[in-house]
Structure formats: C-alpha cells, structure tokens
Amino acid sequence: MNEIIVTREQREAKLEGMGCKRKRVEDIRFTQGKGNYVDDVKLPGMLHGDFVRSPYPHARIKSIDKDKALKVPGVLAVLTAEDLKGVNLAWMPTLAGDVQMVLADGKVLFQNQEVAFVVATDRYAADDGINAVEVEYEALPVLVDPFHSMDADAPILREDIKDKKDGAHGPRKHPNHIFEWTVGDKDLTDAAFAKAEVTIKELISYHRTHPSPLETCQCVCSFDKVKGELTIWGTFQAPHVIRTVVALIAKIPEHKIHVIAPDIGGGFGNKVGAYPGYICAAVASIVTGKPVKWVEDRIENLTSTSFARDYHMTTEIAATKEGKVTGLRVHVLADHGAFDACADPSKWPAGFFNIVTGSYDFPTAHLAVDGVYTNKAPGGVAYRCSFRVTEAAYCIERGMDILAQKLGMDPAELRLKNFIKAEQFPYHSALGWEYDSGDYHTAMRKMMETVDYAGLRREQAERRAAFKRGETREIMGLGVSFFTEIVGAGPSKNCDILGIAMFDSCEIRLHPTGAGIARMGTKSQGQGHETTWAQIIATELGIPADDIMVEEGNTDTAPYGLGTYGSRSTPVAGAAIAMAARKVKAKAQMIAAYLLEVHEDDLEWDIDGFRVKGLPERFKSMKDICWAAYNSPPPGLEPGLEAVSYYDPPNMTYPFGAYLCVMDIDVDTGVYKVRRFYALDDCGTRINPMIIEGQVHGGLTEAFAIAMGQEIRYDNDGNVVTGSFMDFFIPTAVETPHWETDFTVTPSPHHPIGAKGVGESPNVGGVPAFSNAVNDAFSFLGSTHIQMPHDFWRNWQAAKRLGAIA
Ligand code: CDP
C-alpha cells in the first residue's frame, strides 16, 4: 500500500535523510533525565570497589598492611598486587606495547597510582577501608622534566625493563627511553636546510592536558560462577576491543564475556584504554561472587586516567626569500609518564603525527620522535583528535606564523602561497600520506572575505600605532589557522590495536512493516549516532529515519567493530552503514522486480522505492517491498531483508578547515577577550548540518579551554597541582566565546557517501587559532613564540617580559 504523498519534496522531507537538520533523537531521554549510564546500573547484592592511591610520585613500597581495613564494617576484601599475581593480573598490557602495573608492584611511579583495591558493601565503607590500609613508602628521587629523562644520572623509573635494550618500537637509548620513531628523508631535508635562504627554529610545546569527560570512567563487573560468564557494563568507547582484550588476558572464552557500554557522558579519548579499575572490579567479582561497581571521582579521573598531549616539538622550516617552503624538520620529545599507555594504532608510536606537513606542499620533511618516561600518570590519548593530529596541527600552524613573521609576510598570504593546490589531489605528502581530496584556496579565501581579513589587519595596524603612542593599553591579535586532519583509522593493512584490525561494521534488519533496526560496532558518547546513522539509512533505503532504531554498545548484538574515537565513526562505520544498506537495496530490487513483473534492470530507484523505467505509475515502495520480503518473496529467494557489512576503508579521510580568531588583550592585566571566532569546516558530504554545528561548537570550546588555560601541571616534586576543577580550566557559558560557523563541501572520493569525519576538527584547528591570536597580538613587541596555555597570568608575564609594562 503506497501512501499518497503529493510531491517529491514531501517524500524526501518525510525521510529526514542526509542533509536534514534532524533533531537529535537521543535528546528525548537525555533532557528528561532518562539516560541509562553505568552508575544507573544497580544489581542485587552489588559491592563497591575503590582504590588506595599513592601520595608519592616515586617511592618504594616497603609494606602494605590490610588488617585494620578488613576489620572496618562492610569491608569484604582488600586486593594488592600480590593477590593479583595469583591470577597473573598484577600487570596488564597497554595499547602501546608496554606493560602497566594494575596495582603497585614493589614501587609507585606517579602520584595517585593505584596501590590497593578495597571492596565493600557501599562506597562509604570502601572509603573507610581505604583510610585504614597502612602502606609504608620509601621516597625515591623524582623525575618530572622530560628533558632530563635521559640524563646519565636520571633516576631509573622502570626497573622492570631497565636492562631491556629493545622496546615495542625498536632500540632504547636509556633505561627511561621508550622509543625513537623517524619518518621522512633526512638527507634530502638536511640538504634543503643547508641551501635555504630563510630558516626558522622554535621549541613549540603542547602542554599536558586531560579529556575530562563529564562522566568519569566506571564499570560494573558481574561474574556468574554457575555459567562461567562475565558481564561488564562500562564507559567504553570501544566495547568489542575490551571484550577481546579481557578474553586474552583473563583467559575467559570470548563468548562468555558480555560487554555493554550503555549511555556514555562524553569520552574524548579518555574511555578508549583499559584501566586498573576494570581489572580489579572483574577480579573482585570473581573472588566475591558478587557484582562489583567501580566509579572514579573527578580527582582520580584527572590525575590517573589517560592524559593527552605533552609533546615538545623543536620545529624548523626552510623557505625561499619569497616565502615558498622548501623543507620541514621536527624533533619531538614525548613525555609518556610512567608507562607507555598511548592509545594509538599499534604501528604508530607517535600516532599520525607525520601529518605535520599540514596543508602545505613541502617537497621534503623529516620527523623524529623520542618517547620517554617520567613520574607522571600514563596515557597519551587522542583528546578529541585523531592520534596526535592536534599536536601536529599546532606545530605546523605555529611554525607557519613564525616563518611569516620572519619573512615580514602576512600569515594568510604565506599559507595561500604554500597550499597544496586542488588539482594536486590525491596528494602524496613528504611524510607518507595520501590526502584524498581538498580545496584549500577556496576555503581560505571564503574565510578571508567573510571576516574582512584585510580590514581587520588595517584595524590592527591602527591599534598598534595607537598603543605605541600610549593611547590604549589593549593589543589586538589575529589568529589564522588552516588545518588538515587525518581521520578514519583505518585501512587494516596499517592500522590495528593490539593486532585487532581497524575496520568497522553495520548490520541492518528491516521488519515486515517497513521499519528496522541497525547495529554498529561504534559507540556514541554524545555525538548523536542514533540520529545520524538513521539518516544515512533513510537516504540509502528510502525508509524514514524515525522508523530506524539504531543500537550500539552491546557486544552480544552488535557486529564486531573497533569503536568510536579519532573521528573514525563516519569515515569507517558511516561507510559500513551505506554498504550494508546497499546490500539490502540489491535484494529489495530483486523483490520489486518480481512484484512488478519486470527485469531488475528495468527498475530505477526513486527516493523511497523502485519504479519501472519509463512507466512512472508502476512503483513499489520500500514499505511494500519489506512486507513482500517476509510474506511473498520471489520463488527461490530466501525470506527476510537484512545485511551486514564489515568495511575496511581503502584510505583515511582528510577533512580541513580555515579558522580565524580575533582577540584583544589588556597588557596591564593579561585579560583577553575573544572578539570574534570564525570556523569554516569541510567534512565532505554533510549528514546532519545541525549535529555538525554542535560538534564544532563543542570542539571549539575544548580548544578554547586547552589554549587559554586547561593544563595538567606537576610541581618539581611530582605533585599534580591541577587535580580538580578548582584549578583545571573548564569553560562555562560565561567564558565561552560566540562561535561563527561556515563550511565548504569537498567530498571524499573513496567514501561511499563522500563523508569525512568532523568531531575532532574544531579541536585540531581551534587550538592554533587561539594561540596564534595571542602570539600575533604580542609579535609587534618583539616576541616570536609564547608557550600555551595563555591564561591571564602568562599573558601578563609576557607583557612584562616584552616591556609593555613598566
Ligand atoms: O567518531 P565520532 O562520532 O566522534 O566523529 P564523527 O565521525 O566526526 O561524527 C560526529 C557526528 O557528526 C556524528 O553524529 C556524525 O554522523 C556527524 N557527522 C555528519 O553529520 N556529517 C559528517 N560529514 C561527519 C560527521
């Protein structure tokens, strides 16, 4: 039965497919407080676990006395490394090929490291138990500064591997050295520098920060002794990976492990890895026979789960006098903390940092990265970025501004002069990537025209003159940033996590009445997958998005996938969705041909069904076809209408964008005001423009936080001094600037719907825009580079150092 819908526009509008600003369906439950988060999981007899943590950043553990804790009412067990050794779980593998203590084994290596796990009938009893555990420490010398990690007299942190000459990524130069990773042609690059007319060299540091999602990391583990099955509800960005890793390290058959990631309150990379809390809760459940819940508090989250960045990038650019770049040389000192727990694909110890040539046509480049240990928390996750891409974008975008300053050129003009041209795509970069598509000149010019860039520069010149005349105490900065991202890990031939290949998946099952369910290997943490995935299916299959239920996060029902991080969902799972839909459509076409008594080739697709070519009145809607698929399929064709696709992308996707920040800074107080922020993003085909805008707003707000104040800072004794939201900058609506968004559309040529990722882009492009604005503001006073974060205090210090304050 076809519904009578008058126009094509109405039929299309009813689908709410790709390009529609469809409202987020998940918000119905979120705005009514009906989300279902891990902490909402309450099981009969459930126990609570919590950690005794080290106050010392580096110390030997002389003894742990649990006796008093075990006498605390409600405390049932106290686990230490000695207990975990019995089940071979005192250490766990990290995603980066290192090992990490689950509970302190003989020594502690960072402040707030997990020392013992107290299990009790409620959280209060667990807390009392923690206070009653007696640990005797012997303090050891502390290593905080990564630039001293490889000193001859540096304290050796990892005694477990001190004699190992090789690590997961090749030879180690020092007991505190993790790896050296090099890419590019060194000789050619050195030669380019030897004959360069102009060069710049600057140490550009991207400080340590933290993804700090609203909901901290947590889990509930429930071991069923009778069935031998372990069920884990957790805040997992990659549930299937967790299931496989648990199977491998706990030796529980994988089909007896059920991992469920319910609603997640933000991840930003923080919830990709495995943490001691998960292992301890699972062991505690096996030991006690009861479900065990572990929920981090904010301080624990900020100080012990995965940090981000902490890259110190010595950046050199060679160029001609006219401003044509001829070479790029970067050395990175990467501070990985106490264990290398970076969440990068296995073969990429510095992630995709080799996208550091950015949007520019560098004929040659060379990159070397040294990873080192310090007495800090482990991690190194992609905080709203694709595996170290934000560090790379910051490095090159600051570098280009510094070069422009040296050449006396406008930073936007320098970029336009060096962009990869539209006709050069697919473009092979000097550091090994194949950029799929781009039109950088168009995006940059659109940005410059929209904001009246030339007018802003004129105003800046006038304001600088007025400052010099003493008529104003405010300086004005223009922060230009043009970034190229690399998202969609990845082609499985070169991307895996612990050997698990990085494809993604979708299963679509249509029901007889024309509705359906779709399941993916991804896991939304706020990105709106339930809304947008249904839109892809709506366009591909002509079924209204409202009639498609999207389900993620349950490893028993979802097809195997590698999860959501690094903006990989749209490039990989988004493609799997389109491919699964096309399989369904192919069968639907066979059924339609049978119903319309024509050959399949005589049919054409028309919005929501198939039509006989040349006979427009002969039409079968997808709704008709769904009914027939179950109740009157063509003879010889099995009933049902469903398909699954595992999509292994041929390449990554390369979104890009042109951003501009206009900032005024009062030199006497260091107080800044973001007067204007314009963000043009190109993420190829746009599935839901409203969700894209939301993603850009969120990412820019995080970029603002990172550039302007957010930092995980340690004092010289290894104490974390920004371990709570009292000190760790989280902007509220009061501080957050107004965002102007814009776009161009350059589809990805290899993605089935031409889409690229977008979630990370504003963080990648935003940070250099803010930092370039601050640096641009101060540049006329003689500075070339001021380190982030640019809080009021540092701005004031810069003003003083540069002589702007008497
Ligand atoms: O992997 P993650 O979901 O974090 O990032 P993403 O693939 O960039 O997608 C973030 C959200 O933006 C999803 O809801 C996407 O469907 C949506 N999006 C879109 O509407 N159009 C695009 N071209 C890219 C993403």
From TrEMBL:
Residues 32-141 form the Aldehyde oxidase/xanthine dehydrogenase a/b hammerhead domain. Its EC number is 1.2.5.3. Its cofactor is Mo-molybdopterin cytosine dinucleotide; Cu(+). InterPro entries: Ald_Oxase/Xan_DH_a/b, Ald_Oxase/Xan_DH_a/b_sf, Ald_Oxase/xanthine_DH-like, AldOxase/xan_DH_MoCoBD1, AldOxase/xan_DH_MoCoBD2, AldOxase/xan_DH_Mopterin-bd_sf, CO_Mo_DH_lsu. It is an enzyme of class 1 (oxidoreductase). It catalyses: CO + a quinone + H2O = a quinol + CO2. GO terms for molecular function: anaerobic carbon-monoxide dehydrogenase activity; carbon-monoxide oxygenase activity; copper ion binding; iron ion binding; molybdenum ion binding. It holds the Pfam family Ald_Xan_dh_C. Dimer of heterotrimers. Each heterotrimer consists of a large, a medium and a small subunit. NCBIfam families: CO_dehy_Mo_lg. This is Carbon monoxide dehydrogenase large chain.
